[in-house]
Amino acid sequence: MPESVGVQAGRVCPGCGREDSIPVIYGLPGGDLFEQAEHGRVALGGCLVMDEQPAFVCRSCHLEWGSESDPTADEDELADLLDVGHAELVRALGTGWRRESAADGQDGVRWFVSGEPAQLAVGVQGPWFVLDRPLTSAADRRPGPLATDGVRFIRDELLHDPWYVSHVAEDIASRRRRSFRWCRTCRRATAPESFVAAEGSCERCVSASADRAE
Fold first, then answer.
1. Count of domains in the chain?
2. Do the Cβ atoms of 15 and 50 come closer than 8 Å?
3. 140 shares its domain with 103
4. How far apart are CA 36 and CA 1, in angstroms?
5. Which of 2-11, 48-57, 77-86, 123-132 is the least confident region?
6. How far apart are the first and last CA of the chain?
7. 145 plus 207 within the same structural domain
8. Which among 41, 59, 74, 106 would be 20 to 30 A from 147, CA to CA?
9. How far apart are CA 83 and CA 77, in angstroms?
10. How many other β-carbons are positioned within 10 Å of the β-carbon of residue 157?
């Protein structure tokens, strides 16, 4: 089963303009995939696997479209803010970027995070961007690049020194990953702020267990 099922964040259907697309799964499906398909979280594309098959299908207009390598709407926004192409963004900072609007500062800073769980944050303000750890609580507001503990760059460094930017990004992400805990229920890596130590499980599994007990 794919790691990400259900509506794909940032995948805007080119047909109807709605963010209501789910992944198309090819190959022989197992029982879990049939169940996910019945609930509308994935679409089954058949057993024949060919080149350039659509990766998504819109649940609203049923258009099959796109590929996994296509930038999301959030990645396009980040690339535009940094004034670089998507390829340059990926070369220096990787993929999977999504808006972290709760962290936006009052001075026009726009924040994005990547990784699942979130491992790296980038904030953009004017000619500057900063790499930092992701937001870990609602009270942990982002005051802006000049006040953050992260590493600040000028946007041109994405083009002229992508290796160094990538090195700093991976160092921050690596330190963040070392704080992850493993949920004994779903066996997935969990950010510390989403881990219930007393239960040894993630908040999602603890909540699901409580619902079943009622």
1. 3
2. no
3. yes
4. 9
5. 2-11
6. 29
7. no
8. 74
9. 10
10. 15
